[in-house]
TrEMBL record:
Keywords: Pyruvate, Thiamine pyrophosphate. Belongs to the TPP enzyme family. Residues 193-319 form the Thiamine pyrophosphate enzyme central domain. The lineage of its organism: Bacteria, Bacillati, Actinomycetota, Actinomycetes, Micrococcales. This is Pyruvate dehydrogenase. Residues 383-529 form the Thiamine pyrophosphate enzyme TPP-binding domain. The keyword Amino-acid biosynthesis does not apply. Residues 4-115 form the Thiamine pyrophosphate enzyme N-terminal TPP-binding domain. GO terms for molecular function: catalytic activity; magnesium ion binding; thiamine pyrophosphate binding.
Amino acid sequence: MARSVAEHLVNQLVAAGVERIYGIVGDSLNPVVDAVRRTPGIDWVHVRHEEAAAFAAGAEAEVTGKLTACAGSCGPGNLHLINGLYDANRNKVPVVAIASHIPSDQIGTDFFQETHPDRIFTECSVFSEMVSSPDQVPRVTRTAIQHAIAEPGVAVITLPGDVADQPVDDAGQQAVVPTPRHARLVPDAADVTALAEAINNADKVTLFVGAGARGAHAEVLELADLAAAPIGHSLRGKEVIQYDNPFDVGMSGLLGYGACVDAMEGADLLVLVGTDFPYKAFLPQDVTTAQIDVDASHLGRRTRLDLPVHGDVKETMRLLIPQIRRKTDRKFLERMLKKQRDMMTKVVGAYTRNVEKMRPIHPEYAAVLLDEAASEDAVFTVDTGMCNVWAARYLTPNGRRRVIGSFLHGSMANALPHAIGAAFAEPSRQVVALAGDGGLSMLLGELITMRTYNLPIKVVVFNNATLGMVKLEMIVEGLPSHGTDSPAVDYRRLAMSLGIPAVRVEDPRDLRRALKDGLRREGPALIDIVTDPNALSIPPSITSGQIRGFATAVTKQVLGGGMGEVMAMARSNLRNVPRP
């Protein structure tokens, strides 16, 4: 049957399970958009910025595990996709991106809006090819879909507008290749036995768990019980392993908390379980280290590695656990758990008590009340920066909730567009965007998208009129903060001007009610919380260099006439400094 290239492409996406394409229409993309209009089973979602389209597609894929799609018109249109595509590719979620192109006979002539998307997107994709003739379309599109699902990751199809309009004879062409069930990667028996012997011979074992342990919660806990091992986790590992976990000692990294760092540094054997944790400074260099990972390229690339195991975490646990002798000496585990309780009470919990009358509102307190008010299966999308910190420390995982963020790419402005994708994917599920005012203002137009489709997203704005994480980074480097503050903005008024119900909270005594009422509303809502701009994240382990940097920055601030700001910062953060 003959049809246009655009129609064939759209039909292939539908056959692969794609339900919507996020993007902005444009001349070279018009044939694809019109094909969507005429094809049952797929919709066009009009966002206000193509970056948001890619973020939304990535979040939908994250929540559902299914293939999603986004699109951008030639030149500037598809260039805007790149940040969200980097994020999706690093998160290893299946996304097809359609990058329309200038007329094919003008390519290479420095034509109006000319770029080379097939080259530009190579670094942020697992597949990137240009369609230059109709005969290519069936196989190139099918191959792109297979790469996106199998890797998984981003597959980019570059399509000139004139080619999209040409007819293609797809009679007898297979739309998509059936997707096989994921294979299980079983580790080599000798490597598992070597790890078992190391665990049995070590006096003090610590497990550090990442997102690669998804689906192996019970098995990892069983190993921890046998090995008397405290369990720390990465940020992406939090939702995978922290819930119902009596061995939990918190999280490592600059956003971390609890006894995780002490548990890793005090161990005789550290076992990295399904994590490619990138921060070398927070990993011990003088502790015997084992690593279990399904991707062999991850083994040993972050820290020392003595015992590599290449395999799925669950399959590795299945072979490993029968070889582990239960440890009777559990003093190390008990000591780390006590330290965790103390630190959670004295440090992490410091801002959540006796703060009902303190203004500006402590963001930690706001995060705790949000955690209490949110549903048991809520999807939280989290802006990069201080919102990441508050989510990591105060949102409680339970095996049903999801926390989605730009945890590997680290982009600003991801929370709202991620929430759009999650809400489209599961409209009956509560979706909460934890947005910093810096991130929200960057893609503010997506509030219009949220309102246009009446998406039931609850945007909770942590509004401190500053870039808090950047401020902390500058202080640690010995620099007084500069260029981090912004004018105060009333996001309630902005939301209400778009027809979105909104409330602004400045008194902490009003916060609990505002969150409960906002989360119960039908459709979209925004809660603008005015938070303390001086509340910063104190890492679980403070180095001498960080202390020197803080002292240097404070001295410069005082000499520059900023004594009042220094005192406000001290009052806001003194209780959060880790103590022995």
